Amino acid sequence: MERRLRSGYTGTGPGAITPDGCAVEVWTRLPVGTEPEVVASAVPAGGSILELGCGAGRVTHALVERGFAVTAVDESPEMLARVRGARTVLSPIEDLDLGETFDAVTLGSFLVHAGDAAVRRALLLTCVRHLAPGGVVLIQREGEDWHTGLPRERAQPGGLTVRVVSAEPVGDGVNSVRVEYESPDGSWTHVFRSRPMTAARFEEALAEAGLRLDAYLTDDRTWVRAVPADRA
């Protein structure tokens, strides 16, 4: 069965392309950053983590190595085929209902900036639905200047260059973002929809899903810890 790309999302280059336009090969090459340390600092040792949008397992593998019990969710079977050491679930995030709860639910890769506000709400409600009593939601948001000062690029270990080329308005406060990836043996493109949000608007989005900001976890305020709004 052919899987269609999400509206406004495209990708090109060698290998499989996910419904949101990501090239699987690129995500197997991108190095893990500080994400595992950020998550580990906010979750009890050995705790259970639901990782929403795990991709090829960059963060998953590092969390498993630290002793966490990770359930990794993605809508791409090609991405999930690269994940090792974790339970995997094939599903769009917004449709997920495992009937289980976890010590932490993570929503990384700027997914909270989905261009479609209904999709964003559904993503956050999935987080809430799977949160154990006393648990936390860990969300990665864009820096507030992420859509400006373009183009910009950075070189990654292994010879991969990531270039954010443009962020063009397409209406209703949403931008169409184009990213290019270059390596000695291939090149890829990714076009996706992203809704920039100030800190205040981000907190409003949390409130729409019954969450509140509990703390910023990084100095650049891109990683946040959220909890149910009614928690004391």
- Beta strands, count: 12
- Radius of gyration over C-alpha positions, nearest whole angstrom: 17 Å
Give the helix proportion (percent range): 10-25%
Backbone shape: globular
Mean pLDDT across the residues is 96
Strand content: 25-35%
Instruction: Note the total helix count.
Output: 6
Distance between the termini: 47 Å
Please tell me about this protein's structure.
- This protein is an alpha/beta fold.
- It has six helices and twelve strands.
- The mean pLDDT is 96.
- The strands form two sheets. It has a seven-stranded mixed β-sheet, sandwiched between helices. A five-stranded antiparallel β-sheet has the order 1-10-9-8-7, with no helix packed on it.
List the helices and strands and how they pair.
Elements: E1 10-12, H1 24-29, H2 35-42, E2 48-52, H3 58-65, E3 69-74, H4 77-80, E4 87-90, E5 102-107, H5 117-129, E6 131-140, E7 152-155, E8 161-171, E9 174-183, E10 186-194, H6 199-208, E11 211-216, E12 223-228
Parallel strand pairs: 2-3, 2-5, 3-4, 5-6
Antiparallel strand pairs: 1-10, 6-12, 7-8, 8-9, 9-10, 11-12
Q: In brief, what are we looking at here?
A:
This protein has six helices and twelve strands. The chain is an alpha/beta fold. Helix 2 (35-42) packs across helix 3 (58-65).
Please tag this protein with its features.
single chain; five-stranded antiparallel β-sheet; alpha/beta; globular; seven-stranded mixed β-sheet; 12 strands; 232 residues
